[in-house]
Amino acid sequence: MIKTARDTWRTLEPIHGMIYFAPEATEAYKALGLSYHAGYFASRSAGFGTVPASVVTATFYNFNPRLVTDSITTAWATTDPASVLAARRTAADQTLRRVLGHDAVESPEIARAATLLREAAETVADDVTGRPLYAAHAALPWPDEPHLVLWHAQTLLREYRGDAHVAALLTAGLSGIEALITHAATGTVSAETLRTTRGWAEVDWHNAVDGLRERDWLTDAPELTFTAAGQARRAEIERVTDENSAKPYVSLGESRCLELQSLAKPYSRALAEALMPWLLARKS
């Protein structure tokens, strides 16, 4: 069931992830006076309210803390969490309608998928201990329209999993930048993309790589390459993350998870094609 849980999360992830690449979201945050990064951090952390920047930094594990602090300080000096949350939901609605089309948004298939995923999400509504970013999202009101219910439910489950992943990284003794480097070493995303999008300087990156080599995570090869021990440790991080994220899907059961995957796959693919084509390249 653990594999089915992971596959279900992965299949539906574009339904949540699209919000970070949708021009509708960028424009909505821009209208509030926010840059891309300010909009990104504010929209994901707005459920906390206007907490100190250090609280937001604590939950965005592999980003450069300076980038988080500067972005969130600017955001809450410019606008407020309620406005950002409203802008995000409106952008999600607009994007889903544009990419999927009216017929899909109003279809019984999307309504059924929304019902299943909401049921899964609601089984862990009170499972917030040690999951701060999930807890903030879980306290937000549910939307009414099925396509937004589907988006909100997947957002909840993504943050539920994300908090579990942070716990696994901490247990493995990895700092934020070290976690990012081990992600790069898996080969799924380039090191340069991960470094620049998370705001790390080259000197910080190289120093962290050297530290991981000294601790037998990485070989001395020019390309980021795991040692046997490093490979095993990274696999254990993923195993623990999967195990601690499976509960919502286990509650649905195997057959309904497979039904959910089947229902959502066309929508996820359409969103990936329109906004995240690199996801499809990874799967091919």
TrEMBL record:
> Taxonomy-wise, where does this protein's organism fall, top ranks first?
Bacteria, Bacillati, Actinomycetota, Actinomycetes, Pseudonocardiales
InterPro entries with a match to the protein in the record: HTH_67 (IPR054058)
Q: What is this protein called?
A: SalK
NCBIfam families in alphabetical order: SCO6745_fam_HTH
Query: Which species is this UniProt entry from?
Result: Kibdelosporangium aridum
- One Pfam family from the UniProt entry? HTH_67
